[in-house]
Amino acid sequence: MLTLDQLIVQFDKGLRTLLAPAHSIRDYPDEQVEDALLTDEEKRQAAALMRVNHVGEVCAQALYQGQALTARDPETRKALEHAAWEETEHLAWTERRIADLGGRKSLLNPVWYTGSLTIGVLAGLIGDKWNLGFLAETERQVCKHLDSHLSKLPVTDAKSRAILVQMRDDEAQHAATAVQYGAADLPLPVRGLMKLSSKVMTGTAYWV
Protein backbone atom coordinates (compact mmCIF):
# COMPACT_ATOMS: atom_id res chain seq x y z
CA MET A 1 0.00 0.00 0.00
CA LEU A 2 1.37 3.41 -0.96
CA THR A 3 1.81 6.00 1.76
CA LEU A 4 0.41 9.51 1.44
CA ASP A 5 3.92 10.87 0.80
CA GLN A 6 4.45 8.35 -2.02
CA LEU A 7 1.12 9.25 -3.59
CA ILE A 8 2.05 12.94 -3.49
CA VAL A 9 5.40 12.18 -5.16
CA GLN A 10 3.71 10.17 -7.91
CA PHE A 11 1.11 12.88 -8.48
CA ASP A 12 3.89 15.45 -8.70
CA LYS A 13 5.69 13.30 -11.31
CA GLY A 14 2.54 13.22 -13.39
CA LEU A 15 2.05 16.98 -13.24
CA ARG A 16 5.67 17.63 -14.19
CA THR A 17 5.45 15.23 -17.13
CA LEU A 18 2.30 16.88 -18.48
CA LEU A 19 2.84 20.55 -17.59
CA ALA A 20 6.48 21.38 -16.88
CA PRO A 21 9.20 21.71 -19.54
CA ALA A 22 11.37 18.58 -19.59
CA HIS A 23 15.15 18.85 -19.15
CA SER A 24 18.05 16.84 -20.55
CA ILE A 25 21.32 16.17 -18.76
CA ARG A 26 22.93 14.89 -21.94
CA ASP A 27 23.54 17.19 -24.88
CA TYR A 28 20.64 17.41 -27.31
CA PRO A 29 21.40 15.00 -30.20
CA ASP A 30 20.70 17.73 -32.78
CA GLU A 31 22.83 20.37 -31.03
CA GLN A 32 25.66 20.27 -33.56
CA VAL A 33 23.45 19.52 -36.59
CA GLU A 34 22.84 22.33 -39.03
CA ASP A 35 19.19 23.29 -39.49
CA ALA A 36 17.95 22.84 -43.05
CA LEU A 37 15.55 25.08 -44.90
CA LEU A 38 12.25 23.17 -44.87
CA THR A 39 9.06 24.02 -46.72
CA ASP A 40 5.90 24.68 -44.71
CA GLU A 41 4.58 21.25 -45.67
CA GLU A 42 7.83 19.55 -44.61
CA LYS A 43 7.72 21.37 -41.27
CA ARG A 44 4.11 20.29 -40.76
CA GLN A 45 4.98 16.68 -41.54
CA ALA A 46 8.04 16.62 -39.31
CA ALA A 47 6.20 18.35 -36.44
CA ALA A 48 3.36 15.82 -36.62
CA LEU A 49 5.81 12.93 -36.50
CA MET A 50 7.67 14.47 -33.57
CA ARG A 51 4.35 15.04 -31.79
CA VAL A 52 3.66 11.31 -32.06
CA ASN A 53 7.11 10.57 -30.64
CA HIS A 54 6.54 13.04 -27.81
CA VAL A 55 3.30 11.24 -26.97
CA GLY A 56 5.26 7.99 -26.92
CA GLU A 57 7.59 9.47 -24.32
CA VAL A 58 4.67 10.73 -22.22
CA CYS A 59 3.28 7.19 -22.29
CA ALA A 60 6.69 5.74 -21.42
CA GLN A 61 6.99 8.02 -18.39
CA ALA A 62 3.62 6.88 -17.08
CA LEU A 63 4.19 3.24 -17.99
CA TYR A 64 7.53 2.95 -16.20
CA GLN A 65 6.23 4.95 -13.26
CA GLY A 66 3.40 2.47 -12.83
CA GLN A 67 5.67 -0.53 -13.31
CA ALA A 68 8.24 0.74 -10.80
CA LEU A 69 5.49 1.33 -8.25
CA THR A 70 4.44 -2.33 -8.29
CA ALA A 71 7.81 -4.02 -9.00
CA ARG A 72 8.86 -6.39 -6.22
CA ASP A 73 12.59 -6.74 -6.86
CA PRO A 74 14.81 -3.69 -6.13
CA GLU A 75 16.96 -4.39 -9.22
CA THR A 76 13.88 -4.49 -11.42
CA ARG A 77 12.69 -1.21 -9.94
CA LYS A 78 16.13 0.31 -10.54
CA ALA A 79 16.09 -0.74 -14.21
CA LEU A 80 12.63 0.76 -14.68
CA GLU A 81 13.58 4.01 -12.98
CA HIS A 82 16.70 4.35 -15.15
CA ALA A 83 14.63 3.81 -18.29
CA ALA A 84 12.17 6.45 -17.09
CA TRP A 85 15.03 8.92 -16.56
CA GLU A 86 16.22 8.52 -20.16
CA GLU A 87 12.64 8.83 -21.39
CA THR A 88 12.51 12.21 -19.62
CA GLU A 89 15.42 13.32 -21.79
CA HIS A 90 13.56 12.09 -24.86
CA LEU A 91 10.64 14.24 -23.75
CA ALA A 92 12.91 17.27 -23.68
CA TRP A 93 14.40 16.53 -27.10
CA THR A 94 11.08 16.00 -28.86
CA GLU A 95 9.44 18.91 -27.05
CA ARG A 96 12.08 21.37 -28.22
CA ARG A 97 12.07 20.04 -31.77
CA ILE A 98 8.27 20.38 -31.99
CA ALA A 99 8.60 24.02 -30.93
CA ASP A 100 11.41 24.63 -33.42
CA LEU A 101 9.19 23.29 -36.21
CA GLY A 102 6.27 25.49 -35.15
CA GLY A 103 4.15 22.55 -34.05
CA ARG A 104 2.26 21.71 -30.87
CA LYS A 105 2.07 18.83 -28.43
CA SER A 106 -0.90 16.44 -28.38
CA LEU A 107 -4.05 17.78 -26.76
CA LEU A 108 -4.74 14.28 -25.42
CA ASN A 109 -1.55 13.90 -23.36
CA PRO A 110 -3.48 13.60 -20.05
CA VAL A 111 -5.47 10.72 -21.55
CA TRP A 112 -2.35 8.95 -22.85
CA TYR A 113 -0.63 9.42 -19.48
CA THR A 114 -3.50 8.09 -17.38
CA GLY A 115 -4.03 5.04 -19.57
CA SER A 116 -0.33 4.16 -19.63
CA LEU A 117 0.02 4.59 -15.86
CA THR A 118 -2.83 2.13 -15.33
CA ILE A 119 -1.27 -0.39 -17.71
CA GLY A 120 2.09 -0.03 -15.97
CA VAL A 121 0.60 -0.69 -12.53
CA LEU A 122 -1.22 -3.79 -13.81
CA ALA A 123 1.91 -5.08 -15.55
CA GLY A 124 3.86 -4.74 -12.33
CA LEU A 125 1.23 -6.57 -10.28
CA ILE A 126 1.47 -9.64 -12.52
CA GLY A 127 5.09 -10.23 -11.49
CA ASP A 128 8.58 -8.94 -12.17
CA LYS A 129 9.51 -11.25 -15.06
CA TRP A 130 6.31 -10.27 -16.88
CA ASN A 131 6.83 -6.66 -15.89
CA LEU A 132 10.26 -6.74 -17.54
CA GLY A 133 8.85 -8.68 -20.48
CA PHE A 134 6.34 -5.90 -21.04
CA LEU A 135 9.19 -3.36 -20.91
CA ALA A 136 11.27 -5.33 -23.41
CA GLU A 137 8.40 -5.81 -25.87
CA THR A 138 7.37 -2.16 -25.57
CA GLU A 139 10.88 -1.03 -26.44
CA ARG A 140 11.16 -3.45 -29.37
CA GLN A 141 7.96 -2.06 -30.82
CA VAL A 142 9.13 1.51 -30.21
CA CYS A 143 12.35 0.80 -32.13
CA LYS A 144 10.32 -0.40 -35.12
CA HIS A 145 8.10 2.64 -34.82
CA LEU A 146 11.13 4.96 -34.79
CA ASP A 147 12.58 3.22 -37.86
CA SER A 148 9.29 3.88 -39.62
CA HIS A 149 9.39 7.56 -38.71
CA LEU A 150 12.99 7.87 -39.86
CA SER A 151 11.84 6.76 -43.30
CA LYS A 152 8.96 9.28 -43.29
CA LEU A 153 10.89 12.39 -42.22
CA PRO A 154 11.73 14.96 -44.90
CA VAL A 155 15.10 13.93 -46.35
CA THR A 156 16.74 17.23 -45.41
CA ASP A 157 15.50 17.27 -41.79
CA ALA A 158 18.79 16.12 -40.25
CA LYS A 159 17.99 17.62 -36.83
CA SER A 160 14.86 15.52 -36.27
CA ARG A 161 16.70 12.50 -37.66
CA ALA A 162 19.55 12.88 -35.15
CA ILE A 163 17.07 12.95 -32.28
CA LEU A 164 15.20 9.84 -33.43
CA VAL A 165 18.40 7.86 -34.03
CA GLN A 166 19.60 8.51 -30.46
CA MET A 167 16.17 7.69 -29.08
CA ARG A 168 16.16 4.40 -31.00
CA ASP A 169 19.59 3.49 -29.59
CA ASP A 170 18.40 4.21 -26.05
CA GLU A 171 15.21 2.18 -26.47
CA ALA A 172 17.16 -0.80 -27.83
CA GLN A 173 19.38 -0.64 -24.75
CA HIS A 174 16.33 -0.58 -22.47
CA ALA A 175 15.03 -3.76 -24.13
CA ALA A 176 18.42 -5.45 -23.77
CA THR A 177 18.61 -4.47 -20.09
CA ALA A 178 15.14 -5.90 -19.44
CA VAL A 179 16.19 -9.21 -21.01
CA GLN A 180 19.37 -9.19 -18.93
CA TYR A 181 17.28 -8.89 -15.76
CA GLY A 182 15.11 -11.88 -16.71
CA ALA A 183 12.27 -10.58 -18.90
CA ALA A 184 9.74 -13.20 -19.95
CA ASP A 185 8.59 -13.54 -23.57
CA LEU A 186 5.05 -12.22 -23.78
CA PRO A 187 2.39 -14.43 -25.42
CA LEU A 188 1.65 -13.66 -29.07
CA PRO A 189 -1.91 -12.35 -28.39
CA VAL A 190 -0.53 -9.86 -25.85
CA ARG A 191 2.10 -8.62 -28.30
CA GLY A 192 -0.60 -8.27 -30.95
CA LEU A 193 -2.82 -6.26 -28.61
CA MET A 194 0.09 -3.97 -27.78
CA LYS A 195 0.71 -3.35 -31.49
CA LEU A 196 -2.95 -2.56 -32.05
CA SER A 197 -3.06 -0.14 -29.11
CA SER A 198 0.10 1.56 -30.36
CA LYS A 199 -1.38 1.93 -33.84
CA VAL A 200 -4.49 3.63 -32.45
CA MET A 201 -2.41 5.96 -30.28
CA THR A 202 0.04 6.98 -32.99
CA GLY A 203 -2.69 7.45 -35.58
CA THR A 204 -4.67 9.72 -33.27
CA ALA A 205 -1.67 11.68 -31.95
CA TYR A 206 -0.54 12.52 -35.49
CA TRP A 207 -3.60 14.77 -35.84
CA VAL A 208 -4.70 15.65 -32.28
Compact overview of the structure:
This protein is mainly α and 208 residues long. The chain has helices at 4-19, 40-70, 74-100, 109-126, 128-152, 158-180, 188-205.
Describe this structure in words.
Helix 4 (109-126) packs antiparallel against helix 5. The chain starts with a helix and ends with a helix. The chain is globular and about 50 Å long. The longest helix is centred in the N-terminal third of the chain and has 31 residues, at 40-70. The protein has one domain: Ferritin, core subunit, four-helix bundle (Ferritin, Up-down Bundle), CATH 1.20.1260.10. By secondary structure, the protein is mainly alpha-helical. The protein has helices at 4-19, 40-70, 74-100, 109-126, 128-152, 158-180, 188-205. Helix content is 76%, strand content 0%.
List the keywords.
208 residues; 7 helices; mainly alpha
Which CATH class is shown? Mainly Alpha
| String of helices and strands | HHHHHHH
Counting structural domains, the number is: 1
Helix content: over 70%
Mind telling me which CATH architecture this is? Answer: Up-down Bundle
Average pLDDT, all residues:
87
The whole-angstrom Rg is 17 Å
* β-strand amount: under 5%
Extended strand count? 0
- Outline, from the CA principal axes? globular
What class, by secondary structure content? Answer: mainly alpha
Annotated CATH homologous superfamily = Ferritin, core subunit, four-helix bundle
Helix count equals 7
Please give the alpha-carbon distance between the first and last residues: 36 Å
> Which segments are poorly predicted (pLDDT under 50) over 5 or more consecutive residues?
none
CATH topology: Ferritin
Q: How is the biggest beta sheet arranged?
A: none
